[in-house]
TrEMBL record:
PANTHER family according to UniProt: OROTIDINE 5'-PHOSPHATE DECARBOXYLASE (PTHR32119)
Keyword Ion transport: no
Keywords: Decarboxylase, Lyase, Pyrimidine biosynthesis
GO CC aspect terms: cytosol
Protein name as catalogued: Orotidine 5'-phosphate decarboxylase
PROSITE patterns: OMPDECASE (PS00156)
Lyase found in the keyword field: yes
Length: 235
């Protein structure tokens, strides 16, 4: 049975041992988990096998951005490894995203969600200007999200602050994955565009990525359970 919670816990650790230790303190019925670049680079595919063995659905957050054939092959390998979700950069363009979507369509019984990253939640308008983008984060997110949907993506990664706009523009079935989620009173960290879990879901987000507020808590499962309860999810 698939996890009913929208919470995805980011296992942002430098070693496989630390990540598995944290995963064992969590509950696959109460959350999914995210594996990012640092962890995957140190642990490789073995981390996916270990997390799957513990019962977790895994978001492989490697943000592929390369020529179409390379990215299509990469997402296909990820899907074959059984990941629940994998992502690419929308800024890689239509041909790259279409190739990726087509690659997954060729796989029998594929259930892996294919998501495109719009604008990183660590970026603000000044960051966009520096890379030559003359648009606000909201305008650029809207443009990239529309391109992602028309290119066959299941959804996008975006700030929760853009969720309401994208849900309205692109439909409530277009999956919105939002990092930068901080429970009320949590430290903002290096995220600039953030929101509480309850507000993010009300705005139209489907999945909420949470890291340090859970993983650095003295009692991670208590924080996770409370976050689910705040969302009306009692597991």
């Amino acid at each position: 049975m698939s996890c009913q919670s929208p919470i995805v816990v980011a296992l942002d650790y430098p070693t496989m041992a630390q990540s598995i230790e944290m995963a064992k303190r969590l509950d696959p019925n109460q959350c999914r988990v995210k594996v990012g670049k640092e962890l995957y680079t140190t642990a490789g595919p073995a981390i996916l096998d270990s997390l799957h063995a513990l019962g977790f659905e895994v978001f492989l957050d490697l943000k592929f951005h390369d020529i179409p054939n390379t990215v299509a092959n990469a997402v296909s390998v990820a899907a074959k490894a059984g990941v629940w979700m994998v992502n690419v950069h929308a800024s890689g363009g239509r041909r790259m995203m279409e190739a990726s979507a087509n690659a997954l369509q060729q796989l029998p019984n594929n259930n892996t969600l294919l998501i495109a990253v719009t604008v990183l939640t660590s970026m603000d308008q000044s960051d966009l200007v520096e890379v030559g983008i003359d648009a606000t984060p909201e305008q650029h997110v809207k443009r990239l999200a529309a391109l992602a949907k028309s290119s066959g993506m299941d959804g996008v990664v975006c700030s929760a602050q853009e969720s309401k706009m994208l849900s309205t523009e692109l439909g409530k079935d277009f999956v919105l994955v939002t990092p930068g989620i901080r429970p009320t009173g949590s430290d903002q960290g290096d995220q600039k565009r953030i929101m509480t879990p309850t507000d993010a879901m009300a705005a139209g987000s489907h999945y909420l990525v949470m890291g340090r507020p859970i993983t650095q808590a003295a009692d991670p499962i208590a924080v996770l359970t409370q976050a689910n309860a705040d969302l009306g999810i009692l597991i």
